[in-house]
Amino acid sequence: MAWLRDIDRWFGARVLPHASGFRAYALRLTGDEGDAEDLVQEAYARVLSLADWRRLEAPERFVLTIIRNLAFERFRRAKVVGIRQIGVLDLETLPDPAPDAYVATTARQELDRVLAAMDRLPPQCRKVLTLRKIEALAPRDIAVRLGLSVSTVEKHLSKALRLLTEALAEDEDGSIKSRPGSWLSKARKTERR
What we know:
Blueprint: H1 6-14, H2 19-30, H3 33-48, H4 59-77, H5 83-88, H6 101-119, H7 123-134, H8 139-146, H9 150-169, H10 183-192
């Protein structure tokens, strides 16, 4: 579907899978299916109109916050609000945005793989990569600290990133893993640009 924009693909992958949860939350807030659907659609419209949608780390949490704020706005404008609805608007009713145990374990395992691969890098490449990516130093500052030229720092950084990507891409049997949404598939998309 070449006619889809990046935001449409992102919306379909990161927001729409949570649609039933959004509707259930909106229904708890309003008590009416029609009003709940209106809140969800308005929240979708607001998300799709964002200029910096790429910066959203937890879009499902953002949509829930928009739904809650829209409900607050409607209740403020309403002349009469049911006592049940006031209790539902408690801020603590939003789901916990913290990752579940599976996500945390998977992330920790991937971090361990990255750190082990970094340990296998040549010493100078490892130093440059650590200073650039972990300590966020500019290449010029790294060059001064290590007594190298900026060009040499950039070459070490490039080599380190290439070696790290190759090391992480190799599976135990030597094949290359590329599951959708993985760091490798993202790296390959970036390379093609």
